[in-house]
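Can anyone check this?
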Amino acid sequence: MPKDFRIWLGGGFILLLLLAAIFAPLISPFDPLEQDLLSATMAPGQDPSHIIGTDSLGRDVLSRLIFACRIALTVAFVAATLACLAGTFLGMLAGYLGGWWDATISRLIDIWMAFPPVLLSILLVAVLGTGIHSVIAAIVVIDWTRFARVVRAETQQQARLEYTEAATALGMSRGTILFREILPNVVPVILVLLSLEMGIAVIVEAILSFVGLSVSTDTPTWGGMIAEGRQIIYQAWWVLVFPLVTLFLTVLAFNQLGDGLRQWLDPMLKR
């Protein structure tokens, strides 16, 4: 598959979700919280106004899917960006300064990555309390290590190249070399990791919503819709299938975008 096609495919789908999240009140056919027990578990196509059916409380599934984009993308962009900033900063310090900086940060990464990420995120949210801020904080606390480990290795490689030695010989300070010389050459790797981390953040938020540890149960989330659909799968399969498919396509889009960026930005893969 051509690398440009992956970028356009993944980026296009994510842009579509982003537009749906921004203009959700305008494009949603119903209020996602509006209940109509007389229209409960209405199958897709049974009523033209409910294109993909209703759930057990008569709420429009399409409207809830659209509004759920807001939670998923907010967590994806904010949590992944904060984890990226923290992990990149620590990874660059460890990779360039070396010595006790490298030893301390590397041991911290090893210890942090020894914990199962999903279980640790559930524990953190349980301690911090439910809410989107707690979900974002849990993802940042857990996933900064993904960036730190990779950025550390890339920084060490860049620090051994001739342009870094030349900058040192010219009398540039460590901070200038690190953020003006090395950082621009590490950015391609960071962008790829950031895209992949957004997909992971969407999964983590869905898992926490599934077990009731994300936002309030009234707020539409893909994980919450999947949890509800699982209970009524034999009566209303669409309540489970549509959010599950949307979640799968979203994560796939972030992965395709990241893979396309990797092939596009990596000079070795361009050959």
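Reply from J.R.: I decoded it. Residues 11 and 257 are 6 Å apart (CA to CA).
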